[in-house]
Structures are given as C-alpha cells and as structure tokens.
Design brief:
The chain is α/β, with parallel strands linked by helices. Helix content is 24%, strand content 22%. A hairpin with a 4-residue loop joins strand 15 and strand 16. The radius of gyration is 19 Å and the shape is globular.
Length: 347
C-alpha cells in the first residue's frame, strides 16, 4: 500500500530534508508541497538538490490543500502548526516537526513559547526510554505525532538510560551543545550570516532560556526522574548541520564505569538508529551527517564523580525529519526502518 503525503513548509530546511527522505521511501507518494510567501514557485527553485521532485510546484499552506492526504508533515514555525492541524481530519496522520505539540505542560508552553497552547501529541523519539519501556509503544496506531526538538532529543537520548537505571542524580545536570545553524531554519538574521559564524563559536539562549529545556525535563521525567534540574547551553558553530551534545550528571554513590557502559548498551540494545560506542570512544558530529543515526559515547569522571556523555546526530535528519518519518512508519504499521539510512556521508 502507498500512502499519499503532503509536506507543509516545503521550502525550508526541515521541509527539504523531509522531502529528500520521502523521495526514496517505498511506502509514501509525495503529492503536495506547500509554502507561504514562496507559494506559486517551483519546488526546485528553493530545493535545487531535489531533482526527482522537479515536477512539483509549491501551493499555499492551507487546510484545503493539506486535507485529503493520508499523511501530512508540518514543517512550520512554532505557533502555526496547531491551528492548521486542528482542522485536519482525525483519521489523517499528522506529524508536526515544529514545537506546537511537544510539551505536556501548558505552563511550560506559556513560559518558554507563549501564545495559544494546542496540547501534547505522541512524542516522536521511538528509542527514548519511558516508564520501563520505549516511546515507540506510544506511537503505534496514533494519528498525531510531535517530532522532537533536535537538541532536546540529543540530550534526552544521552541521559535517559542513566535516569531509568537509577545510576545518576536528577539534580545538577549540565549540557553544552555545539550546533549547526540549519537548526534555526532559513530565517534571515544577522547571527546566522556566514560573516558572523565563520571562524567563531557563538553561545546563545544562555542562562536557562532555551526553549528545549522543558522538553528535555519532560523526557527525563518520563524516564523516571521527579524534578530534574538542567543547565543547558547551546553554542552555534560553523558547520551547516549537526549536533554534538556533551551532557554530564552526578553519579550516585558507588556507580562504576562498567555499570554505566553496560546500562547504556542495554538501554539501546537492538536499536538500529541509536548506537552506543565501545568504552573509551566518543563520536564526532561528522560521523552521522546525512543519516538517521545517533552515536553515544559514555565515560565516568571518577575524580569529579560525574557521568559524561557525548552524543552526535544530524539535526535535520535524525534530529527532525528522520525522527518524524521513523515515527510515521511505526504509526502506520510499516517497517520502522523504511526509507531511512544508518549510513552517513563523508568527508
């Protein structure tokens, strides 16, 4: 069976990555691509790398243009998906790659985003440890999926095994991330200009203001934490895509490096797209570019009494579009790996 697909926000980075993956997916047929100010223009005018989709023209992002498809992917700025999704048929599988449906708490939404709260959907990180199981069980048969924030999924996947196994303290968690600017979309802002980024590392959203903080805390609570506290600092670096997240937490008394390695390996045993590296090994962001793979290295800083994790993922692939399509595969009963690759590109 082939499912008809519409992608809203198709002229942006996330929309382009969705289309790139969907173009090679055996179970999906891309029928409609939408945009706002770019409506009426050929898709390839904005996604020139998608040559197999050169026959498509961007149409206006409206409920009328999105309705009538089996699957709708929304790659829109926060605050835009919720209103559109509320008018789509209940039987349509809708996957939101924006933030509108990630947070379970209206108070957290108000504090970090503001505006109308549209409610939480099934969270689209299948491998994430939750309540003694995995998030994928909550995706089976659903028709509403919230794809993750790329930074949030990186930190959550890195630390959730330690919470679930009771090996780390939930207070005093610290995460510092090197991130590529494509995660911010195609918005024309000074801080994203090449002349500002090249040759520089630029921290932003410093001091507990980044919008992915409540999403990470929510994920850690679902893994077993009660009141996780998190210091989160992203740093913009001159690579077009990628996330390298270094996350640390205090170890509980007596926890050894062997226990840590074994716990993380057990948490992700059998997973195709989240892989734990051998002890003493950490990933580079380049190792996962163009793939749906997250690589994790774990270590113990014995003198400091802290766990150190290093996780690498491609923010546009595994961090957004790949997670969305992987979750859609599960919801529709398709092979979870359909259309997705574990292999990156190099150099």
């Amino acid at each position: 069976m082939t499912f008809s697909v519409a992608v809203a926000g198709a002229s942006g980075y996330a929309g382009g990555e969705l289309l790139r993956i969907l173009a090679g997916h055996p179970g999906f047929e891309i029928r409609t691509v939408t945009a706002h100010q770019n409506a009426g223009q050929p898709l390839v005018a904005h996604q020139p790398h998608l040559r197999s989709l050169s026959h498509l023209t961007l149409v206006d992002t409206s409920v009328e243009n999105l309705a009538g498809h089996d699957v709708v992917f929304l790659a829109l700025p926060h605050g835009m998906s919720g209103e559109i999704a509320s008018h789509l048929p209940a039987e349509t599988l809708v996957v939101d790659c924006g933030a509108d449906h990630r947070l379970e708490s209206p108070e957290s939404w108000a504090a970090f985003y503001g505006g109308e709260y549209f409610g939480a959907w099934s969270y689209g990180v299948p491998e994430l440890p939750v309540d003694g199981g995995k998030q994928r069980e909550r995706l089976v048969g659903t028709t509403r999926i919230a794809a993750p924030g790329c930074n949030a999924s990186a930190v959550s996947l890195a630390l959730a095994p330690g919470i679930a196994a009771g090996l780390i303290e939930e207070e005093d968690i610290v995460a510092v991330l090197a991130v590529g600017p494509s995660g911010a979309g195609k918005s024309l802002k000074t801080m994203y200009l090449a002349s500002e980024i090249l040759g520089s590392a630029n921290p932003y959203a410093v001091g507990g203001t980044h919008r992915h903080i409540p999403e990470i805390q929510q994920n850690l609570r679902n893994a077993g934490a009660t009141h996780p506290t998190l210091s989160f600092t992203p740093v913009l670096v001159p690579m077009s895509r990628g996330v390298l997240a270094t996350s640390t937490a205090r170890l509980k008394p007596g926890v050894t490096a062997t226990q840590v390695q074994e716990a993380w390996e057990a948490a992700y045993a059998g997973e195709n797209f989240v892989q734990v590296l051998p002890a003493g090994t950490v990933p580079r962001s380049a190792d996962v570019l163009g793939s749906n793979t997250a690589l994790i290295g774990v270590a113990v800083d014995a003198e400091a009494g802290r766990l150190v994790t290093v996780l690498a993922l491609d923010n546009l692939y595994k961090g957004t579009a790949g997670a969305a399509i992987q979750s859609a595969n599960i919801a529709l009963g398709l092979e979870e790996t359909a259309g997705l690759t574990v292999n990156g590109v190099a150099p």
